[in-house]
Amino acid sequence: MDLYKALALAGGTSTAVGGGILVSRSSLFQGTTNPVTTQKKETFRDRYIAAILAKEDELWNSKFGILKGTAEPAHPTLKNAKERSKTNENEAKDLHKQGCSEIYDSELESSPHFKDFQTYCAKTMKDGIAQGETWSEQAHTESVPWNTKLTNLHSHNEGQKGVLSDSLKKVKEQISTGSESIPNWNESKRKALKDWCDETKVKVFLGEEEAQFKNAKLYCVGN
């Protein structure tokens, strides 16, 4: 085979110099594998930055109370923290924060630890309301505050008060059917809104400007 062709097939370059051949060593021996650019995977901290607890956040105490209760965490460090809480609470609290930190910086996609994050490590919708405000916890059998909130939801104008989440739109549609007169709502209508608020309060807090949180401030929170 012609030497020039052989060099070409080998991936080298050649230059004729004084009747001889100068081979580019770098091109002849360069690797054939292109470097692969690894894209950083999204973490819990990346997606849920508004829900991450600061080191000295007072919410750690209430989250720790949940952890050492009847809950059953899956993350190994949180499991260790729960077990240690029986003998050394201060050490258990440190392990609790350590476990949450490990979850914060772990890959979000297909993670088996979302429930642990939501329950023991994250600020929830209820946690996100301002000091001095209270989440409405009254039973749906109580007319106060649910009747007033239902009346306001029934007349909700998205142009003035913001877009409703899909789930709250369904509640609005549900309460808009029937023959009872406003504002004398029956228990089933009050229960529909109460259930929505109960489901929403434990969801991960995404920030004060997030649509569902704004909805909750209107229809689940009282001063």
Automatic annotation (TrEMBL):
Region (Disordered): 75-94
Record's compositionally biased regions (Basic and acidic residues): 80-94
Protein name per the record: Uncharacterized protein
Organism of derivation: Mycoplasma haemofelis (strain Langford 1) (Haemobartonella felis)
Native organism taxonomy: Bacteria, Bacillati, Mycoplasmatota, Mollicutes, Mycoplasmataceae
